[in-house]
Amino acid sequence: MHAILNVIHWNIDPVIFEIGSFGLRYYALCFLAAFVVSYVLMLQVFKKEGKTQELLDQLSIYIFLGTLIGARLGHCLFYEFDYYVQHPLEMILPFRMNNGNFELTGFQGLASHGGALGILTGLFLFSRKTKTDFIWIADRLVLVVPLAGAFVRLGNFFNSEIIGLPSSLPWAVVFEKHDMVPRHPGQLYEAIAYVIIFFIMWSMYRKNAKPKAGYFFGIFLVLLFGARFFLEFFKENQEAFENSMKFNMGQLLSIPFMLVGLYLIFRKPKDSKK
């Protein structure tokens, strides 16, 4: 990476090293770091509130699977529905047949909104399996989700994906894998926003570990998806069909999450029993 004429040129190889057909990518490391750091922080929360590490281990499995499955299906259904409705197996298989030839593709395309829905589904299944209150778990899990999201967006930056709109700002980045146009580093904007949200949530929890049920969850939904809605104005649309829309898919999908968050924040305490 080098700076020329107040513009940052970014052309790093997303693959750290390759051994045969296996390649270790920065994105994979960021994804792994997201789960490891989240686990360590959640372990502190569980110990503080008298929950066992075994319960956290079970929760981690549900969250990991929910995140991957939800993010993958979210991308396929929200952004490339026309293609994947014709090739449904490619939603879940990391390869495809191209003109009769086997092609290893990996899982190209993960949507954060789908990941959010996957996490909520995982939480629901976990709460039923372990007889743990859904809202209690949600209020604690959202303390670390923003930090995990920051790691994922850092991985997107290494991949030179989810790029921003053209910009003349001094910190604009030229993603040479796409073109030579200076752009907003949208991935870093989101990563920074999520780190700030993490510190806000963590500070709130340390000051008030037992708020109204659903309050932390609501604050999280409003802050994170509000930031996502706003920062979409600095990013290129991910798919061509979004170009004719006033608000892109990421913004439209953020609105329901924000509305649910507002409800959880302002609902009366007696509703918490429902």
TrEMBL record:
<protein>
    <recommendedName>
        <fullName>Phosphatidylglycerol--prolipoprotein diacylglyceryl transferase</fullName>
        <ecNumber>2.5.1.145</ecNumber>
    </recommendedName>
</protein>
<dbReference type="GO" id="GO:0008961">
    <property type="term" value="F:phosphatidylglycerol-prolipoprotein diacylglyceryl transferase activity"/>
</dbReference>
<feature type="transmembrane region" description="Helical">
    <location>
        <begin position="212"/>
        <end position="231"/>
    </location>
</feature>
<feature type="binding site">
    <location>
        <position position="153"/>
    </location>
    <ligand>
        <name>a 1,2-diacyl-sn-glycero-3-phospho-(1'-sn-glycerol)</name>
    </ligand>
</feature>
<feature type="transmembrane region" description="Helical">
    <location>
        <begin position="247"/>
        <end position="266"/>
    </location>
</feature>
<keyword id="KW-1003">Cell membrane</keyword>
<feature type="transmembrane region" description="Helical">
    <location>
        <begin position="134"/>
        <end position="152"/>
    </location>
</feature>
<comment type="similarity">
    <text>Belongs to the Lgt family.</text>
</comment>
<feature type="transmembrane region" description="Helical">
    <location>
        <begin position="26"/>
        <end position="47"/>
    </location>
</feature>
<keyword id="KW-0808">Transferase</keyword>
<keyword id="KW-1133">Transmembrane helix</keyword>
<keyword id="KW-0812">Transmembrane</keyword>
<dbReference type="InterPro" id="IPR001640">
    <property type="entry name" value="Lgt"/>
</dbReference>
<dbReference type="Pfam" id="PF01790">
    <property type="entry name" value="LGT"/>
</dbReference>
<comment type="pathway">
    <text>Protein modification; lipoprotein biosynthesis (diacylglyceryl transfer).</text>
</comment>
<comment type="function">
    <text>Catalyzes the transfer of the diacylglyceryl group from phosphatidylglycerol to the sulfhydryl group of the N-terminal cysteine of a prolipoprotein, the first step in the formation of mature lipoproteins.</text>
</comment>
<feature type="transmembrane region" description="Helical">
    <location>
        <begin position="188"/>
        <end position="205"/>
    </location>
</feature>
<keyword id="KW-0472">Membrane</keyword>
<feature type="transmembrane region" description="Helical">
    <location>
        <begin position="59"/>
        <end position="81"/>
    </location>
</feature>
<feature type="transmembrane region" description="Helical">
    <location>
        <begin position="107"/>
        <end position="127"/>
    </location>
</feature>
